[in-house]
Write a structure and sequence with these properties.
alpha+beta; about 25% strand; repeat; disulfide bond; elongated; host-virus interaction; disordered N terminus; Gnk2-homologous domain-containing protein; GNK2; Killer Toxin P4, Chain A; disordered C terminus; six-stranded antiparallel β-sheet
Amino acid sequence: MHFAISMSKNLIWVFVILPNFFSLALSDPRASESHLVCGADKNPYNSSFIPNFYNVMHNLIKQVANHLSGSYFVATPSPAIYGMAQCHRDLSPVDCQVCFSEGRVKLPKCLPSSSARIFLDGCFLRYDNYSFFNEATDPKYDYVNCSSSKEVLTDKSLLMDFNSKVAQVIKNVTETAVVNKGFAVSEVRGGVVAVYALAQCWTTLDADSCRLCLNLAGSKLRQCKPGAGGRALYAGCYMRYSTERFFNIAVDTEEGPDKGEFNVRVGIRSLELL
């Protein structure tokens, strides 16, 4: 479904994925590591821990290949291991596999830790010794990473405009992701600097837990202003904003007939997260 919106000031887009957008976007698996956390507790190598770990990873490989996400656990023989993997929903199946494979190579660096999680810019992997699948936040390990500010933001009016855009895209992706099965991207253009944002809840969360995670993540991420970018890496979700476009969606826009006016065509379709 497409529709037009006329705007005379900043161009604000909130949109979610349409499958045919993939062919228009430049492929990028976003396999760069953002954050790796290894748990403090260790398992002895002479236990069933390592075989159980690879059993969980093997099952996640099959689920991610089919659904871009998955969860699995092995309870016996002890120790129990629970694992989860999730690609961001704008990644193609091929890019998802690239990102997941990169995370799967790096996560064993934490062995024999009984828990670990790794955030890449396009996917997330975690294993632990308890069922964490419905966990929205984790005060011990939730993490926000902020980048430095842009030089052009030394002007007070430009800084105010930028801060407003950051707040707007965070609000946009938070509200949209909750009603769109956990995923949204947004961008605000106009003026000197554009701002882009993405939010992704893990598929194991319900809508209320997704909202909780994104609200807390967004609140902390706003504190990155006037940084040119920031990432909120939470137990149940991922949120990022940047002055550079980083998500894999092509947007069809046209300049309107009046100077400074744009017609924005926004594609909306709910995603079924399997």
